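During the no-cost extension, the postdoctoral fellow (Dr. R.K.) reprocessed legacy sequence entries with the updated structure-token encoder. One reprocessed record is reproduced below for audit purposes.
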Amino acid sequence: MADLPPGSLFAGFVVDDLLGRGGMGEVYRATRVADGETVALKLLPAALAGEERYRRRFERESRLAASLSHPHLVPVLDAGEDDGALWMAMTLVEGPDLSSVLAERSTLHPGHAALITAQVAAALDAAAAEGLVHRDVKPGNIFLTTRDQAPHAYLGDFGLSRASDSQSGLTATGIFLGTIAYAAPEQIQAEQVGPATDVYALGAVLYRMLSGGLPFPRDRDVAVAMAHITEPAPRPSAAAPGCPPGLDDVVARAMAKDPLERYDSAGSLGDAAIAAAIDAGEPPPWPDRPTRPAPGAGDADAPTAI
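Re-encoded structure tokens follow.
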């Protein structure tokens, strides 16, 4: 489907403007005709919409995600299909995504990084309790506002979510669903995924916030995938000397190759990060920030054929 111009009507929404574009679709600011609510309207790529199995799963799982309510989850308002295009409507969070913040600041104070990790972890545990695995936890899907001079994180974009204990990180046409930079070994290898898959990805995001770099920076996606499968988790203190060494242990356990060796829940990872970050001292006040740019766009989120 071509870009939707401002003023166009789509699936009961009037498009206001394009917020951004990424490998997993386009995101628009739109107004719901029924009640005038402003939303983030995401259209999935045609390559995915053309797969009947993916379409059925997307509609089923996104509607389950719409039933979730949690202070650190971006609410999914509705989802469906219109003229062959899959879409999802989410509450518009007026704040930047974590990817944009890291592009400006490179690293975060360990206290802020740990708090964001714990908040996202709480959202993941709420989803896991309903049988959902996110499968694409990354900075571009974490949105930030300010509350009481501290970051308040929202996890969004359950368009890739699927039922716990399901298998395969690939679609029928070989498109990898997820983001290689943060993907767990079992997801890359098309094995069984579960809540531990999201724990691994959140550990990789924690590393990114602390170190200023990706866990396994490589020139090719295949090399990144192999590093996730075979190489030990990197130590954030090696890249950021002021990082408490206890956070090295937190990242290492979260990113263990064997899912059974990781934290038993995302919440346990969040608690461990908070405890380890105490050694870094009190973080400075979190600044108020302007309206975010594109949700989920611009964070190396292209589907990958591997």
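The two ends are 25 Å apart (CA to CA). Residues 111 and 277 are 5 Å apart (CA to CA). The remaining legacy entries will be reprocessed before the final report is submitted.
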